[in-house]
Structures are given as structure tokens and as C-alpha cells.
Amino acid sequence: MRKYLFGTGVIPAITGGISLLRELRSGSPFTWRTALAWLSWAIAVTLTVGAIVDTYRASRGALVDPDSPVAGKEKKLLQKRLRRS
Questions:
Q1: If you ran DSSP here, which 8-state letter would residue 66 be given?
Q2: How far apart are the C-alpha atoms of 16 and 60, rounded to whole Å?
Q3: How confident is the model at residue 4 (pLDDT cuts 50, 70, 90)?
Q4: Around Cβ 13, how many Cβ atoms within 10 Å?
Q5: What is the distance between the alpha carbons of residues 71 and 51, in angstroms, rounded to a whole number?
Q6: Cystine design at 68: which of 16, 64, 77, 81 (Cβ 3.0–4.6 Å)?
Q7: What is the distance between the alpha carbons of residues 52 and 55, in angstroms, rounded to a whole number?
Q8: Which value, to the nearest 10 degrees, does the dihedral of the CA atoms of residues 16, 20, 40, 65 take?
Q9: How far apart are CA 49 and CA 60, in angstroms?
Q10: Rounded CA separation 11/5 (Å)
Q11: What is the mean pLDDT of residues 13-32?
Q12: 60, 84 in Cβ contact below 8 A?
């Protein structure tokens, strides 16, 4: 579980969302820059979740898409998982 939380950008995505929520609650106007910040945060969260899913699938022995950050490391992750159990 630790490799999912600390290795894929979950903490920066959460802190970015918290800062955006604080800005929204402070009463500042909603401008196009704010909309772009929310869009950027949504993209970051989506990429983070995708990396977590790909890492999970690769550690179970399934193939992942070639554009994944863990592409080509499926066997290594599976062997590491099997050694732990």
C-alpha cells in the first residue's frame, strides 16, 4: 500500500486540491485562471489514479498499455510480489 501512496503523486494531488478548496472558500472570484487550476488538478488526479491502477495490474501479472510508466516492468513487479507472499 505504501508504494501506491508515496510513489505516484497522491500526496501532491491531495495538497493541491486542498489549496484549491481553500481559495474557493475564501471568497475570491472564480476566474478563468481558477478554472484552469481546477482542470489541471483534475488531470493530475486522473493520471495519479491511472498510475496506481497500472502498478496494481502489473504486480498481478497483467499486461499494461505501452504508454504506462510501468510498461515493460510487469515481470519484475510480479516477481517482487511473489517474493513478499
A1: T
A2: 31
A3: low
A4: 19
A5: 11
A6: 64
A7: 5
A8: 40
A9: 17
A10: 7
A11: 90
A12: no
Position 20: which residue type? L
Retrieve residue 36's grid coordinates: 484552469
- d(Cα 57, Cα 74) in Å, to the nearest integer? 8
Query: Which residue in this structure is represented by grid cell 486542498?
Result: 18
Q: Which three cell numbers stand for residue 20?
A: 484549491
Q: What is the residue extent of each domain of the chain?
A: 2-84
As a residue count, the chain comes to 85
Q: What single DSSP character describes residue 4? A: H
State pLDDT tens for residues 23-42: 989 988 889 999 999 999 99
CA–CA distance, 62 with 10 (Å, rounded to integer): 23
Grid coordinates standing for 33? 485562471
Helices (H), 1-85: 2-7, 10-25, 32-59, 74-84
